[in-house]
Specification:
This protein is α+β, with helices and mostly antiparallel strands. The protein has a domain of 123 residues. Helix content is 33%, strand content 40%. The strands form 2 sheets. A 6-stranded antiparallel sheet has the order 2-3-4-5-6-7. Helix 3 runs antiparallel to helix 4. The chain is elongated, with a radius of gyration of 24 Å. 23% of the residues are buried. The N terminus is likely disordered.
């Protein structure tokens, strides 16, 4: 990490050695276009950045906003890391697939049909370099007779594991392995495309959209309109309980 943990935005800005680090580590090509600033302007920007603490702006993104304001750049390129937690990925999957009644996703049939196949309660864990998605699956298979499903009914856990990858400005997932499915070939025929394709595609995270939404209120909080013009993801790695995303991009201030 560029800065030691535990320092607030204000602490970083008020210590000259960190101010120097900020100016020397802005990753731009050609060399830094930032103009020299009069002391009075710097002091005002430091005061402005100190107000960020009222909003607990201690994340990387908001630290970056303070750095850009300090540099007073009209346009700057930057490189750094974004962290996406396991909980955020799990929340994304639930919002995309499991937002229906009772949190169920129907692979076959619906809540109104006698026979159906559904999944619920997805849980994500990280294991080495893979993301493991486990969910409860319920099946009522047979023939509908008089509003009831005449056949077999069973529940079992299904599990798929994935590898994260960079896809432009999106965190994507590939190499899906079906680690656990049922012993029923007919049911597995329904489960396989769901676990192989729908689950990975529903977990995708557009990092650029997330950052743009986070920056949308920058005019109100800082008096400047900060815009993300470009974002490129170079790599995505699992570290502990989060994805660490190596990125660079262009931002502008108006």
């Amino acid at each position: 990490m560029l800065f030691p943990s535990g320092n607030t935005v204000t602490d970083l800005l008020f210590h000259e050695k960190y101010r120097s680090l900020i100016m020397n580590n802005l990753d731009c090509s050609p060399p830094s276009p930032f103009p020299s600033l009069p002391l009075s302007v710097v002091d005002k920007l430091v005061h402005l950045a100190s107000r960020c603490e009222d909003y607990s702006m201690i994340t990387f993104l908001r630290l970056f906003v303070a750095i850009v304001l300090l540099a007073a750049a009209v346009q700057a390129c930057w490189a750094g890391e974004l962290t996406v937690s396991r909980d955020a990925l799990e929340r994304t999957l639930k919002q995309q697939l499991f937002s229906g009644p009772n949190g169920l996703y129907y692979l076959k049939g619906s809540a109104q049909t006698a026979c159906s196949v559904s999944a619920e309660d997805p849980k994500l864990t990280f294991k080495q370099d893979r993301i493991v998605v486990q969910m409860k699956t319920h099946a009522k298979m047979g023939r509908a007779v008089g509003g009831a499903c005449v056949g077999v009914a069973f529940s079992f856990p299904a599990q798929v594991s994935l590898t994260p990858q960079a896809e432009g400005e999106t965190i994507g997932f590939r190499d899906a392995h079906l680690d656990r499915v049922s012993g029923n070939s007919e049911l597995n025929f329904i489960l396989s495309p769901f676990l192989h394709h729908q689950v990975p595609s529903s977990m995708k995270v557009n990092a650029a959209d997330m950052l743009r939404k986070a920056l949308a209120g920058s005019t109100v909080s800082s008096g400047y309109k900060i815009t993300l013009d470009r974002l490129k993801i170079h790599s995505v790695l699992i570290q502990g309980d989060a994805l660490v995303v190596d990125v660079d991009g262009d931002m502008s201030i108006r």
